[in-house]
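Sorry to interrupt, but I need a hand with the structure work. Leave the record below and I will have a look:
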Amino acid sequence: MSLDALLLEKLANWRSTSGRATLEASDDSYNAAVAVECVDVIGCRLWEVSLRPVAEKPAVELKARAEQLCQRITGLMEPLHLVEVDELGKAALLRSEQPGQLGADRFYYEVLLHGDGSSVVRRYRAPHADQPRRQQVAFTLTHEALAKLVRDLTAA
């Protein structure tokens, strides 16, 4: 069974309402760890989606992979764009092209890609004058949107 299908099956049978928990699933290629605040029949409130390859992946050109993912990942509220590639550190940073706005608050996704094939998805609230640092916040996805995000991030 594919990783996205395994996650859908686990989400269908699991309800969490008592704080953050981690939902884990694995297939032959990837391990997924999804930090969840709550799950219901339709969707879940997530803190983080983390994917790590089971075995070392063949080296791919990180910039090309990042650019492909910007085009492929379409299930988030804002499209992503490539912010930076650190060839020495073997990492790439994708971020929401245009932050979402809710009142005075601005929100954006970040996807951190590593050269080993792992990736982490998080959402942040942009800092204000009275908040010197950005704050990580939970984000909501339907079960199907989460499965698509996992498929997009793990596609060869």
